[in-house]
C-alpha cells in the first residue's frame, strides 16, 4: 500500500476523474438493482460463446460490468478479480483494455494502493500515444461502444444518454452494424419504458420498429433483434407477426440464452406453456446454473397448474415450480423477490408453516430496501388473505405497504387490493379502509 502527499493525492484524483470508465460515467447504486444486474452479467460470462448475444467484445465488457457492480456492493477485491479476467479477454487488443485499465486504476486507488493506480495510468498513456484517437471522434471506437452499452444495460435512468451515444456514432458511420443495433435497442428500451408509464405508441409512429428493421437488414442472423421486433408487434396486437419473428429468432439462435428467455416468456403470455417448457428445458441442459432460466421455468409450471380465476388444478406442477424456484434462490441468494415467490409457492401446496417461517425471516432483515419491504407487505398480505383466512392481518399489511409511498408497482397493488375489499358491503373493515385511503388522498399521496 502507498500514500502520497496531499498534493500528489489531489493530482491523482484529478487524473482519475479524466478517465473514460465506469467510475466516471455517472452510474450510481441508487439507479439500479445491483443483485439483478449481477445475475444477468454472471449468466453472460458463464455461457459458451454460441449461447451469447452477438455483441463486440461481450465477455470482456461484461467482466467490466461485473467488476463495477461488485465495487458498488462494497466488494473491491472481487472487482479486481473480474477486471483481471477482462484484461485476459482483451490481451490481443490494447484499445479494448482502455476502460478496464481505468477501472483498475480507480479500484486500486479506492483500496489505498495509489502506486498500482499510477501504474495503470501510465499504461493508459502508452496506449494513447501508440493509438491516437482518430478525428473527429473524441474517443476510440472500443471505448465509445463500451460506454454506450454500459449506459444502456445499467438502468433505465441512462436510456436517453445511451440513445444519444449510439445516435452520435451513427452520424459518423451510418451503416455500422454495432451502432445501428445499439441505437435500435436503446429506442426499444426507451419506448418500452414509455409504454410501462401508460403511453400508447402506434406502430406507424414507432421509431424503434423502423430502427430495429434497419438493424436486422444489416445483421440478418441476429436473434435478439428479432425478439425485440416481436415484442413490439406483440404490444400492438400483431400476435402472428410477433410469433413469426420469435420462431425465426429461435431458428437462428437456438442456444442463445437471451433469445430463449424472451421466446419462453412470449409463449407463456400466449398460454402455450408446453411449448415454452420444451424450449426452456432444452436451454437448461446448456445453462443449468442460470437463475433467470430457472425463474422462467418455474413461472411456466405454475401458470400451467392454474385454471380459471387462480384456482390450482395440479399440485404436482406447483411442486415442479417450487423445485426450480428453490434452485433460483440457491443460485442467487441475495436477490429478494424470488424468496417472496418461493414462500407463496409453499403456501399453495399447504406448507403454510414453512411459508410463515420464510416471511418472518424476511421481516427480520434490518437491511431491506424500501421497495423490497413494500413487496414483502403486499405478498404477506396475500398470504394472510388467501391461505390463512385472516382478512384483518392482510389489510394491515396492505396499508403498511401503501405507507411506504409510491416507490414500486407493489404500492398500486396494495391500493388495488384495499379498494377491492371495500367493494363488499358486508366487509367489516370497509369504513376503516375508506378512511385510510381518504387520508392518503387528502395528503396528495396519489399520483
Automatic annotation (TrEMBL):
Gene3D superfamilies associated with the record: Tetratricopeptide repeat domain
Mapped TPR repeat ranges: 257-290
Q: Which UniProt keywords apply?
A: Repeat, TPR repeat
Q: Name one Pfam family in it.
A: TPR_12
Classification lineage: Eukaryota, Metazoa, Chordata, Craniata, Vertebrata
The UniProt family comment states:
Belongs to the IFIT family.
Domain of life, source organism: Eukaryota
Coiled-coil stretches, from where to where?
none
Which species does this protein come from? Answer: Synaphobranchus kaupii
Q: Which GO terms describe its biological process?
A: defense response to virus
* The protein, known as: Uncharacterized protein
Give the record's GO CC terms: cytosol
